[in-house]
Amino acid sequence: MVSALTYDFLLGAGRIELCASLLEGGITPTTGLLQIVKQYVQIPVFVMIRPRGGDFLYSDREVEVMKADIRLAKIHGADGLVFGALTEDGRIDTELCMDLLAVSRPLPVTFHRAFDMVYDPLLAMETLISLGFERVLTSGCDSSALEGLPLIKRLVEQAKGRILVMPGGGITERNLHRILEGTGVQEFHCSARSTKESLMKYRNHSVCMGAAITTSEYSIKVADVAKVRTLNAMAKNFL
């Protein structure tokens, strides 16, 4: 699985957030992946800029990588970018974000779920607005958007249209209606994924290519067309 989908209520799946390694919460995809995806899709492709999994406190060398990845994404057709950075005390790293936004111009930028790790989400959102981020992706600083619903609603009320608040994290056809109804958001974000079994006939189950907690080497996560259609229909019916 290498991407997540963002839905605009009027247009259906209106945007792809392109990333690699969803098991790590998403990291920067390869340039080759971006090039091929751009050949086959008509909707905007926003590229994740995250050099590694883990926290969002970056070293100077990691910042160099992020800036290089932004430049490459722009060259190869990215329609927007997705990134976030924090200070060690859980605040938005305004200096770094300003630098990355400058490299990103004129593309729109989403602040990703690094937001869910901030010390003060209400203050953090005001910071994002002042910096010029177009939207913020959040689970309401909880394990899923459903559990974080009260904060997401509060953030939407606070934003007053100055920034788009986009719920994401565990959104499925089972809870979408409740999230839309409870927050009043204009967009939502989900992976709409399912597991696809490998076509390999010979299988060596004694070897794992990653950590022991990773999924089987003989299954992959893919965007599920049926789930995409169901979520799209639900969003339209909600209107």
Automatic annotation (TrEMBL):
SUPFAM superfamilies for this protein: CutC-like
Pfam families named in the record: CutC (PF03932)
InterPro entries: CutC-like, CutC-like_dom_sf
Similarity remark: Belongs to the CutC family.
This protein's name: Copper homeostasis protein cutC homolog
Organism, as annotated: Staurois parvus
